[in-house]
Amino acid sequence: MAKPQKRYVCQACGSVATRWQGQCADCAEWNTMAEEASNVTVFSAKHNLRTGGRAIAMVGLDADIPLPKRWSTGIAEFDRALGGGLVPGSATLIGGDPGIGKSTLLLQAAARMALAGQSVAYISGEEAADQVRLRARRLGLGMAPVQLASATSVRDILTTMEKARPGLLVIDSIQTMHSDLIEGAPGTVSQVRASAQELIRFAKESGAALVLVGHVTKDGSIAGPRVLEHMVDTVLSFEGERSHQYRILRAVKNRFGGTDEIGVFAMAEEGLDEVANPSALFLTARGEGMSGATVFPAIEGTRPVLVEIQALTVRLQSGATPRRAVVGWDSGRLAMILAVLEARCGLSFSTAEVYLNIAGGYRVSDPAADMAVAAALVSALAERPVPTDCIAYGEVALSGEIRPVAHANLRLKEAAKLGFGKAWGPAGKDEKQAGMRVESFSTLGALVDHILGRR
Question: How far, in Å, CA of 372 to CA of 329, rounded?
């Protein structure tokens, strides 16, 4: 019998080394190398692999194929993020911070699918079955015919599922699963990879829709080997601040649909409630004369979401180092906007602290928010309020030019629905669109002059 060889596997990226080291050479993470025993010997390909195999069937790219069948989860916002619902035989990975509501959302979806006649199995590796049952009762779903179990052995789970053959299988979570074919504790790279592979193989062969819950690291990425995200068909990210009531379910990867849709939920005592009009969550009541606040119409997939951008500037004594603090937006983008305002528009922020916040805990990555951020900064610095019935959108270039953005008409329509009557946008004709008066600006300097009353 071959002597077990020691190897050290990075718990962040799966890289293998023959000796321990403090920092992984591949992903540069510290203290992630863990020892694992391996009986695998190095394979040397001495035979010609061109013969002796089984011929595989080939199909043409132009062959007709039906669209994948989808099962509704009973939660419209969940279905939206999935691209229309769960696909039989697919594997979905959902990650998010602890306590964000992953288990609650999946329990609600499992219960609604079970009440609709689907066979559902919910396997928890972190809680006892009684704990899951108590949560279901608190959510008003105690009568749903969901089959519960608490287990961590993949062999035991698959043996049971071969007889039960559920339509939906929920594993909470993949980091707690253990395969007796692999040495190592649950949660290690080899265990997560092997357990996920066996569960996904069962889903593909049986036609069950598999949903895996994954832990996340401090930076928000799903813990475990990166290959785990490549193995599944769909990766969903459950985002939100625990101090805020809203939650956003975003598709990071989807082999059966787009990755540009989001589902919006609000956390309540009875569980997660769907939010049909998310703009109402992220707009605060603003009074007349409030400076440093603008409204930006963001686009998430095909859904416009209006959010409020708040800015505050505080003058400092000479010699003090000003602070820049951002919540919900890219700090590098803020530095760029401040540089353009100073270099192209003659405004000085060098002696002022700058604070920028996206109301409601929402995160904005749309470059069309540049103009709204710039307007909020100028308004805060000059203490001149932006009209309360006005929205702003447009991308700012380093030259100070304001560039057009996509889906302008969709943004205007959503703003008009919520009672806004005016819009500041990129260069174009000053005209009425979607029931709103659009005022165009070709440069950021022109916008600054307008806010400061220079024209």
Answer: 12
Which residues 6+ apart lie within 8 Å of 148 measured at CB? 122, 124, 129, 132, 133
Sign of the Cα pseudo-torsion (426, 429, 434, 438, in order): positive
**Residue 278, both tokens:** 């998310």
Tens of pLDDT, residues 51-61? 777 888 888 88
Both structure tokens of 223 = 């813990």
What phi and psi, each to the nearest 5 degrees, are found at residue 241? Answer: -95, 135
| Residue 159: how many other CB atoms lie within 10 Å | 11
For the segment 24-73, what is each residue's pLDDT rounded down to a tens digit? 888 888 888 888 765 544 444 445 677 777 888 888 888 887 878 899 99
Taking 50 as the threshold, does the pLDDT of residue 403 lie above it?
yes
With contact defined as beta carbons under 8 Å apart, do 398 and 408 qualify? no
Q: Tokens at residue 365, please?
A: 């990555």
Q: Say how many Å lie between the first and final Cα of the chain, rounded.
A: 87
CA angle 367, 371, 377 (to 5 degrees): 120
Beta bridge partners of 45: none
